Amino acid sequence: MAGEDKRTLAQKMGITRTVIRDPSESDIQLREDRIGRYFRKYLNKFVFDEFSPEFMEKSKAGDLMKGVPIPLRKKDLKAFAGGEGLPMLVIAENMAWVMGCDPHFKHTKDYVAILSKLYNYKLYEGMLKEGRDAAERGAMDDACIHFRAALCMKPDYLHAMYSYARACRAMYLDSGNEEYVGRFKAEALDYFELTTETHPRFAQAYYYLGYAYLNMGLYIKADLTWKEFLRFSRNGKDKKEIRKRLEQLAEPVQIEQGYNDVMSGRYEEGLARLEPFLKSRFESWWPLHYYLGVAYEMTGRRGQAVASFKRVLTMNASHIETMEELAAIYRQEGDRENRRKYEQKIELIRKNTQEDQKALKKEILEEDKKLREREPENQKPEFIEEIKSEDPEEKTVGKHRIKRLDKKK
């Protein structure tokens, strides 16, 4: 019919995916793994086998099993030794652990294909439940690994995306290690963003994402994000809380808009927005004085610029950008003494920063060494030579003999 509106209901409501990322950024099997280094130690608890031809022939996923190693925990070997076999669901759980520890593992795609054929969506829903149960008892590594495994099965699985982001958030809030906090904070932020992009009607992701932006000083983003939360949430208590937060954000949002004016070259507009806050509770915010200084300098008010930049340094004595602005001003004025003073300070701060970075790197390497000593890595993983018996109903697989991959069969 001519003129018929063919938009979906969501589109008619104005709910669309405004951002669709490339799989290299959204698929956990392909994207950078910021936090995998903290889980790979658990892979040392596994040995590997291969499905026998007989078992593959009887399995409905047999065509996918050829050449694929079976992960087995060392505790599983007793069941094999006794001949009673091992439930296939136990092997599925082991596959989930391996995928969750390292989504880039060379056989992750094989595991996903096998498990999808055997169990379909019920398995990744089970992984989600395992993860949530682990989180409730405080086993956050366990929880995170299961959420990552579910995302290997289905990268856009709403509840796994959200639960994974929440788990990463809880883990960095409970740590005092700077490197650890930085990695988990970045992962949490990215997955809250991915969740809102992929499932734009899911309110709670906006709730936590708004707080993440707020803690980063991104007030405009927090404001916009929380307005989306209010649009979709039905939680009266949370909505009341966020309305109060938005009221508190009104002035910081104006200040950030002033910063953006200055950075975009709209200096007079920036001054008009920012100068009123010099007589407000935000007078002690050093970025306010820094951006005012830039705007003053770019509009020819050099005396006010110098005063603003020096005010910054009374609040943030090591702010290099401010020192660079002052050094540039004194260079133009031919004031060699003051120019050299700030250039020397910049050089000293950069040197100290480099030394701090070296010390942090050394600390990280020492922590990694201690971790390896506590969880010694096998240079060659153990390998189960063969399976002696199979259950035609795919419920169990049986006996084994262990050998090393570095030994000839």
Automatic annotation (TrEMBL):
Question: What species is this protein from?
Answer: Zhenpiania hominis
Q: Where is the composition biased (Basic residues)?
A: 398-409
Coiled coil ranges: none
Q: Where is this region: Disordered?
A: 366-409
TPR repeat boundaries on the chain: 286-319
Q: Which InterPro entries match?
A: CellSynth/LPSAsmb/PSIAsmb, TPR-like_helical_dom_sf, TPR_rpt
Q: Where is the composition biased (Basic and acidic residues)?
A: 366-397
Span-the-membrane segments of this chain are none
Please spell out the taxonomic lineage of the organism that makes this protein: Bacteria, Bacillati, Bacillota, Clostridia, Peptostreptococcales
Domain of life of the organism in this record?
Bacteria
Recite the UniProt keywords alphabetically.
Repeat, TPR repeat
| Protein name from the UniProt record | Tetratricopeptide repeat protein
Q: Which PROSITE patterns match?
A: TPR
Which Pfam family name is an example for this entry?
A: TPR_16
